[in-house]
Each structure stands twice: as structure tokens, then as C-alpha cells.
Amino acid sequence: MQSSLVKRFILLLFLLSSLNGFAQDSVYVRQTIKQLTSKTFWGRGYTKDGMTKAADFLSAEYKKIGLLPFQGDYKQSFNYPVNTFPGKMLVIINGKKLIPGKDFIINNESPSLKKQATVDKIDSVNYQAGLNLQIVLKDKLTWSVATEVADKTIIQINKKAFAEIPKTINVDIENKFIPDFKASNVCGFVKGTKYPDSVLLITAHYDHLGGMGNDTYFPGANDNAAGVATLLSLAKYYAVNPKPYSVGFICFAGEEAGLLGSKYFTENPLLPLSTIKFLINLDLVGTGESGMTVVNASVYPKAFSILNQINAEQKLITKINSRGKAANSDHYFFTEKGVPAFFFYTQGGISAYHDVFDKAETLPLTEYNDLFKLIISFNKKLME
């Protein structure tokens, strides 16, 4: 009887420690998302050294966790062109000064422009002020990254925030085209105890949109600070619990500019791509009340079946949706090179995307713990 009580007590302690471990990971994830979305990293983009600072932060986290670099250094550097907006960001319509990011955004390919003009109507949503300036009324403002400069400045205005018909405009916009912006993928791994040359790879892009002018930046909490924080949490787990196989971790740069970091890595791999047994890419994983979707599910039906079986047995994610092949995140170029890969993203919750409202404080992280458990169990099953 006494022995039975002791066993139950030990089991209870084990369960409590496991729960505390997950709770601590949740705290770490939230803290990491808060850091990555702070002004310090300025949208992890192209002005105020945002992306460089983020790469340095991730390298330091890799070292702290105990990851090994793939080849001498955690960083894999590469270059690409990008259009940036480091300075002036003034738009006044009908005498009213508009707020960058909330009332208006500048089309990402726009050149610099300083101009005062009257506005002519083209149709119900399009206006122009001469040949080099166009105004577009939008229901929702979303931004992106451009790798070239157009010959016309385009201003998108939130018609819900500014209901007036544009009649006059005063613009002072500053762009800076950088032909060879330097970025870095951040790569590390936990060495396998028995089969170190067999690798399960977990990836997430850390770059976001950066800033628009001196005062406005795009935090990128769900896209993709949540994916990076989840990756780091998994790295902490595997560093403490090494497996027979190696587990690699890559935080990609340049995703928002066209999957450039993952494309560069697949063309200049730091490990033979043939050693990657499976890849899980995490992007937009900060929600989950409506379940999650797996890109490439129909391409790898056996692996998707295993994932669903684990999910059903452990009662984790409410629903896992199947999706086919898509070039919508960093898994894509690996798949093109023959590496089996899934891209996970969650659904439901906040609708903020590529705007100034994708903030850490509004990110629910509904399914973080369940997603963490699902990935751990899935990886374990893949190597049985």
C-alpha cells in the first residue's frame, strides 16, 4: 500500500513538473514575441538596423540554448535589393495630416516625392494628382516589401478612417533603394546521439516589413514572431532532451521579399539536403481557435495521416485542415529540391496581417502548448 502511494506521489510530481515546463515555455514564448515586436527591432526589417539586430538577438539565443552552428557561425549571409522608407513620411489631404500605418500607407515600390497638388477623380476608389502621384481608397491597409522602384508614387488611404473625398494633397515622402541589402539566415542544431547525419529541420522566418518613416513600424507578432518564438522553445526542449537523430533550426531572412532566405539556403546548403528527413515550417502560428492548416498535406499523405492520428489520440488541435502544394512560405524551395516538408499555420482569432495592428499584446497564442506537443510527438514518430 505504501509503495503504491509513493508511486502515485512520484507520478504526480512528474506531471506537475511537465505542466510547469510547458507553462514556463509559454512565458518564454510570450517574452520572446514581446522582444521581437518591440521598437528595438523596428519591424525586423530594412531601416534602423531592425533585421540585423534581430539576427544578432537570435544568434545570442542559439548560443544560450546550446545549439551548435552548422558551419563555424550561426549566420549565413546573403544580399538582395530592397526599397526602403527611412525618413520623411508626410501626407496631408484636404488640410488634414494623416497618420502613417493607420490612415495611409505608401505603396512599397514608390519613389521619393515632394508635391502639393489638386486631386482629380478617376473612379470611385482611384484618384490622381498628376502623372507621378496616385491615390487609392482601401477598406484595409496592408503593406509588403519591394525589391525594385516604380516610376509612380502610390498612396493607399484607409477609407474607414478618412471618409472625405480627396481634393487637395501635400506629400513629402522619402525612399531609399538599397541594391545589396545584407541579411542573414540564422542556423543551428542539436546533434543526434546515434544518427547525427539524419536531420529533422524546424524553420521559421524572422524578418517582417520593417518601418515606414521615422515613427511607424510593423510589429509582426503573428507574422512571424510567434513562429520564431515557438522554434526557439522547441530548440530549448531538444537541447535538454537530445534524440538519436539531429534536430536543426533555421530562422530565415528575406521571406517577405519573396522567400529569398530559404531560396538562398537551398541553393547554398550548409548541410546536404539529402540528410533532411523531414522539415516543419512555422509561420502565422499565434492563433488556433479555428484549428490549423498543413500545406503539402496532400503531397505527403502518409505523414499527414500520422499527424492526424497523434492529434486524435492526444486531443490537441481542434481541427487540422489539409492543403496541397503552395509557394506561400519557406518550406517551398525545400520541397522543390525533394525535401519532404510541411508548413503549419493556425487559424481564427485576430485578423491583423501585414499591418500596424499585429501586436504582441493582442496575440492569443491559443494553441501554442498543443502545437508544441504535436510537433514533438510527430518528430518522434517520424524516426521510429
From TrEMBL:
InterPro entries: M28_fam, Peptidase_M28. Residues 1-23 form the signal peptide. Residues 185-377 form the Peptidase M28 domain. Transmembrane segments: none annotated. Keywords: Signal. One of its GO terms (biological process) is proteolysis. Gene3D superfamilies: Zn peptidases. GO terms for molecular function: metalloexopeptidase activity. PANTHER family: METALLOPEPTIDASE M28 FAMILY MEMBER, PEPTIDASE M28 DOMAIN-CONTAINING PROTEIN. This is M28 family peptidase. It comes from Pedobacter jejuensis.
